[in-house]
Amino acid sequence: MDRIRRFLIRQEAIFTTFIALILSLVVVGVLLASTGRNPGEAFYYFMRGAFGSTFNTADTISRVIPLSIAGVAFSIGAKCAVFNVGIEGQLLLGALASAIVGYIVKLPAVIHLPLMLLAGALAGGLYALIPAWLKTYRRINEILSTIMLNYPAFFFNHFMVAKALPITGVVPATPFIEDTARLATLIPETRFHAGVIVALLVSVFAYILLQHTSIGYEMRAVGQNQSAARFHGIPVEKRMILAFFLSGAIAGLAGAVETAGVHYRYNDQFSPGYGYDSITVAMIGLLHPFGVIISATLFGALKTGILDMSVYTQIPRQLVTLINGIVVLFVAAKSMIVSGYLRVVKGKNPVTHEGEVTE
Amino acid sequence: MNLTFAEIIKTVFTLSLVYSTIRISISIIFAGMGEMIVERSGVLNIGIEGIMLMGAFSAAIGSYFTGSPWWGLLFAVLTALVIGLIFAFIAITLKSNQAITGLAIFLLCVGLSGFLLQVIFAHGGNSPMVTTLPIIHLAFLEKIPVLNEIFNDQSVLMYPALLLPFILYIFFYRTPWGTWLRAAGENPRALAVVGVNPITVRYLATLAGAFFYGIGGAYLSISQVSLFSENMVAGRGFIALAAVIFGNVTPRGVFLACVFFGFMDALQITLQTAIPDYLIAREVFMSMPYVLTLLILAGFIKRSGGPADIGNPYYKESR
Amino acid sequence: MSKILEMRGICRRFETVVANDNVDLTVEKGTVHAIIGENGAGKTTLMNILYGLYREDAGEIFIDGQQVDTSNPSIAIDHGIGMIHQHFKLIPAMTVAENVMLGMEPTKGRIFLDLKQLNERTREISQQYGLAVEPEALVENISVGIRQRVEILKALYRRANILILDEPTALLTPQESEDLFTIIRRLCVDGKTILFISHKLKEIMEISDRITVMRDGKVVRTLNKKDTNQVELARLMVGRDVFLKPAPPSKKIGEAILEVEALSAVNEFHRQVLKDVSFEVKSGEILGVAGVDGNGQTELVRALIGLQPVTNGKISLRGKEITRLPVKKMRDAGIGVVPEDRLKEGLIEDFDVQQNLCLGLQRNKPFANGMFISWDAIRENARQLVDKFDIRTPSIEHPARLLSGGNQQKVIVAREIFHAPDTILAAQPTRGLDIAATDFVHGELIQQRDAGKAVLLVSLSLDEIMLLSTRIAVIYKGEIVKIVNKDETTPEDLGLMMLGGTYEHIPA
């Protein structure tokens, strides 16, 4: 009994997040019911839409890929106390940069593909250095600066495809990228592409960085307790700037992967809002590179399942964004859930320490 | 098409620009004034953008279904107050990180507005056209040259927007409650030891802020244009945040900062038409407000004069 | 003379410690009643209970014979109690008048502030009590002494009859203190009663009528000023049964390892926090730094690890200068630090025990292997330390946040001691620990001393200093008053020096 209790306490984060998710679903269910829809039916169609056939599952996975990568992008920043809400903008720039590199030259695939992915990552990373500087040298809150910078990024991209680059087609877009720059489709006739490998590699990279390198240790320390980190000689500002860069670069990479695996070019209607979704995905995944994969799968399923669901029931697709919002809210209010949880599990006031004496 | 610099200046800097400035600033002024009240009490609400969005949405809905924009306005305010209350509860009572909570509120509102838009109108993107708030035409102004071009035929909400800084100035510096509000933001313990509860003050301030965000958002959908479209707030909430910082959290400063940002917005629209696209792309101008905001903020290294205790939750038992 | 205040049987505990243990206090009207005691004696807790900021667990309060339940400051204020805290509760950005009348501002028509009245009434009351202030001045522009007057006026405006002054002269210059005493005497003539909380024996002897000495939450004695003297008070305050064993004398004292010369530092408000501090710590000895909180100890420790900018002076370790090096380099040079604030500086709460046990060393071998961390090394290190130092934790993966205070401190001590080659700075190492944990920490420090390390011990507890130190340095207002051998001094002497008392008679 005691061991179970200790386990529950140690994994408090996972369980309370789970509870937050359940609570959100309850709220959503209530909302649906109150607008006259049937939650149970909705759920059935949702599951069918997400995993009902090979095509559907592949579709789900194709959505999971950018969500996972972008989720890792946010997580790496957040682990170091950097809240990069500019994922959207960095992702867009990355997509465009990679598309350009994809069509402008033709090189052997072994070079071309990594090169265009790299271009995407660099674009995102460099763009993220702007809010990095603003935060460390001008103390400007990065939530403000990164959100603000999303708009110019969007406008820039629009300018590029609509005016600067050769126009192809009704919706402004870059020309298609060369074959050598594309990520192979792994299951024919579906959207399941080799980007899934990239997503896995990104998570592995993030994991190794954070858990198995000194720099990662220091970044995590800065994220948890800046004073203590500084006290022990950790260069706080340098680590934050690194976190910004990596976060932006991975976001850019997410955009590049979407370009290379799904669209094969950058077009004006590129982003389905992965930027803000990535925050939710990251928070539910507890900012852990592998947790993010699981969380991204849930979300990817959500997005795909919703399509079928909205066709067969009267429930609009925007439900996803709503769920997004509610979940984040519950996660933000987690402290309430946490203290309740600890009280139940520990059986008493959760803040007592033996041997502790206060003034 | 050889436009000289002088000609461009002449087409751009007209009274019409001033008119547009005021027109566009109204929404930002309400938001900025609201956030100023909130920050003065020691709370930081990053969710402005979200609450404005829901305000815009509710106003459009209200106006659409009742045919009267005034009901829409009321509905917007009520919605904003409810969301503001949720934020206040999580940030003040639960003492959660105010930045994250604000972000959560923002995401919630984006989701909620998009979802409800679909549910109610069965198609995303925009609501149908709705009845707007009246434009005020003052006959006596017709005779006054400059003022006529600037202030006549503006939305009815312009009047409260212009009065707000004065009212708030008096409130902050000439009433006891204004003093308590400022005290809550500077040193809540000082307030506690004289028997005034800083938590109550912060709650009320947050709700007051939400009230104004709601109006600011409503203005967008039932006055500046006449419908609701997704993401129509387009960062104005965050610009209002920047205006509060830039204006040093004072009524006069924030008002001027909001007008300045409104001016930049009006300017970029005017420049788009005045300067042909091949010379300078429109997108440059559209990015201007955001980039300039950050540049201006970057020019301010220290926040001088802002409340000392901002962003910190108030813990009762600490000395 | 009538009893204006009586507190009977006041008890208050926080978690496991008893801050007030059956405290009785009787105060006569029109007197200055001093309450003295060391840090942690319970004086401020008692006053906070009286003023309604805390609730007592047991006991009664009688004001002017009537029982009162002070559950919040408003009630206390209604009954004529005013408190002037050590850390002023003023709003610097507002004027004197606004501060004095905060919460009770005069209004015109209940909506608008009557600024004229605000300033005039402030002026009136200031003249009435002889506390000269400028009503329209901003508090941030006036001196500390005048700020204090504003605080007093605040209380008087609310018709306080009992004024609690908590360490009122802590931030005052000698002249300002004199002015304060004049004010206090005048207030007593007017029939006000003063509760004066302080450490400073000299002042107590000057201003008070009756003195209550507290120790460990209990009242030791209440006596009349004229029946006692500084020496007796110091003894009452400080002397206690010693539970802990004094350290055996140093085995072998070698050369100086840590040398500090003429160290000076200024804080962000341009106040001099360290002035010409010089001392050395030799191998095999413990140098204890004794002093009342706020006299520069914190800044000294921070300067020694590189977190406090230094304006002048030199810090050397084994002859090599390390002043102004970045923090990591200073630590790598051979300093281990047990910080004052274990949760804020010593540990990362959300990290587990094993990761905390290598904090600061994550780039050194054996923990680092090039870029990578060796979890094997971390685990092994953790196991060893947990074993050697008997750290009570369910596992090395347990989050540090969930350990008891004592065990958290053990983690810090274990880590710093085990890896610090030469010098150990221990700042309040046993703060908030129970007897067993305290004993453990003391044992470790002594062991390190005997292993030839140089140990600098900064502590607010004179007991601890006396138990462990080989030599003792007293710090007062940022300066080292004197450095003596432990055997050549007594707690009373040290107490006097720490408290600004006269010490000319103590041999150099």
Compact summary:
Chain B is mainly α and 319 residues long. Chain B has helices at 5-12, 15-40, 48-66, 69-93, 98-121, 145-151, 158-174, 176-186, 188-193, 198-224, 236-246, 251-274, 282-299; strands at 135-136, 154-155.
Write up this protein.
The complex is a heterotrimer of chains A (359), B (319) and C (508). Chain A is built from 15 helices and no strands. With 359 residues, chain A is an all-alpha fold. In chain A, helix 3 packs across helix 4 (54-79). Chain C has 3 domains: 3-238, Rossmann fold (3-Layer(aba) Sandwich); 242-334 and 422-508, 3-Layer(aba) Sandwich (Rossmann fold); 342-419, no CATH class. Helices cover 32% and strands 27% of the residues of chain C. In chain C, helix 14 (405-419) runs parallel beside helix 15. Chain C has 17 helices and 24 strands. Classes of the chains: A mainly alpha (359), B mainly alpha (319), C alpha/beta (508).
Low-pLDDT windows of residues of chain C? 502-508
Helix content of chain C: 25-40%
CATH class of the largest domain in chain C: Alpha Beta
Shape of chain C: elongated
- Label the structural class of chain C: alpha/beta
Oligomer: heterotrimer
Q: What is the residue-mean pLDDT of chain C, rounded to a whole number?
A: 85
The top level CATH class name of the largest domain in chain A:
Mainly Alpha
Helix content of chain A: over 70%
What would the keywords be for this entry?
heterotrimer, A: 359 residues, mainly alpha, ABC transporter involved in vitamin B12 uptake, BtuC, globular, disordered C terminus, B: 319 residues, two-stranded antiparallel sheet
Topology, please?
The complex is a heterotrimer of chains A (359), B (319) and C (508).
Chain A: H1 2-10, H2 12-34, H3 39-51, H4 54-79, H5 87-104, H6 109-138, H7 142-164, H8 195-212, H9 214-224, H10 226-231, H11 236-263, H12 274-284, H13 289-312, H14 319-332, H15 334-346
Chain B: H1 5-12, H2 15-40, H3 48-66, H4 69-93, H5 98-121, E1 135-136, H6 145-151, E2 154-155, H7 158-174, H8 176-186, H9 188-193, H10 198-224, H11 236-246, H12 251-274, H13 282-299
Antiparallel strand pairs in B: 1-2
Chain C: E1 3-14, E2 17-28, E3 32-36, H1 43-51, E4 58-63, E5 66-68, H2 73-78, E6 81-84, H3 96-100, E7 107-108, E8 112-113, H4 115-128, H5 144-157, E9 162-166, H6 174-189, E10 193-198, H7 201-207, E11 210-215, E12 218-224, H8 230-238, E13 256-266, E14 272-282, E15 286-290, H9 297-305, E16 312-317, E17 320-321, H10 327-332, E18 335-338, H11 342-346, H12 353-356, E19 368-369, E20 372-373, H13 375-388, H14 405-419, E21 423-427, H15 435-450, E22 454-459, H16 462-468, E23 471-476, E24 479-485, H17 491-498
Parallel strand pairs in C: 3-10, 3-11, 6-9, 9-10, 15-22, 15-23, 18-21, 21-22
Antiparallel strand pairs in C: 1-2, 1-4, 4-5, 7-8, 11-12, 13-14, 13-16, 16-17, 19-20, 23-24
